[in-house]
């Protein structure tokens, strides 16, 4: 579903994807299936979005961004794609910023160019991400810092891998928290 008040110039949109009003998608962008691009979004040419991705209102996805499957990008999240921006100076290529599968980024977070946010990682609202975020970790603050862990089924754990809500201890199996 492409809303008639959006401007979608790409032909590379998967089945079941919705682009809502007042959004602009440039011709080189690639968007997977079953995505939801909310109103007032902008997607540049060198952007690749996987399947089942949610992009909430007010988000601009700039050249160099790679978004894997099942990612959530909250309202007004800001991405950058130039380490030293200057007016009327244009980069020939952009570093890639990558959001791995099932990552979630809270409202108004800022993600600097060239970082990778790992699978299932959770970025808190208003955070400023300045470096890579490992899988299954929770980061927030300015600058964002590692504050805990999260399971594949969204159970929040403290830095000692403890689920305070349910009084359960977890351990890491590789980078994935599992019940002890």
List the helices and strands and how they pair.
Layout: E1 7-8, E2 18-19, E3 24-25, E4 30-31, E5 36-37, E6 42-43, E7 48-49, E8 54-55, E9 60-61, E10 65-67, E11 72-73, E12 78-79, E13 97-99, E14 104-105, E15 110-111, E16 116-117, E17 122-123, E18 128-129, E19 137-140, E20 145-150, E21 156-157, E22 162-163, E23 168-173, E24 176-179
Tell me, briefly, the overall form: globular
Between the first and last Cα atoms, what is the distance in angstroms?
45 Å
Residue runs with pLDDT of under 50 for 5 or more positions: none
Largest sheet: 9 strands, mixed
What CATH architecture would you give? 3 Solenoid
Number of strands: 24
Strand order of the largest sheet: 2-5-8-11-14-17-19-20-21
Helix content: under 10%
> Multimeric state of these chains?
single chain
CATH class label:
Mainly Beta
The CATH topology is UDP N-Acetylglucosamine Acyltransferase, domain 1
Number of domains: 1
Average pLDDT figure = 97
Count of runs of 4 or more consecutive helical residues: 0
Q: What string, H for helix and E for strand, traces the elements in order?
A: EEEEEEEEEEEEEEEEEEEEEEEE
Broad structural category: mainly beta
Q: Evaluate the radius of gyration.
A: 17 Å
Strand content of the residues, in percent?
25-35%
- CATH superfamily caption: Hexapeptide repeat proteins
């Amino acid at each position: 579903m492409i809303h008639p008040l959006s401007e979608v110039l790409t032909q590379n949109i998967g089945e079941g994807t919705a682009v809502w009003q007042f959004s602009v998608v440039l011709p080189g962008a690639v968007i997977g299936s079953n995505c939801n691009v909310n109103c007032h979004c902008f997607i540049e040419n060198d952007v690749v979005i996987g399947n089942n991705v949610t992009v909430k209102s007010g988000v601009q996805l700039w050249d160099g961004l790679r978004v894997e499957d099942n990612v959530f990008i909250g309202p007004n999240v800001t991405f950058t794609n130039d380490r030293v921006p200057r007016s009327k100076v244009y980069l020939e290529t952009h570093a890639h910023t990558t959001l791995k599968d099932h990552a979630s980024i809270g409202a108004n977070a800022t993600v600097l160019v060239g970082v990778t946010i790992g699978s299932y990682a959770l970025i808190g609202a208003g955070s400023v991400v300045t470096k890579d975020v490992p899988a299954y970790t929770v980061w927030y603050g300015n600058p964002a810092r590692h504050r805990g862990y999260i399971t594949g089924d969204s159970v929040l754990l403290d830095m000692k891998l403890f689920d305070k809500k349910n009084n359960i201890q977890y351990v890491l199996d590789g980078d994935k928290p599992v019940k002890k």
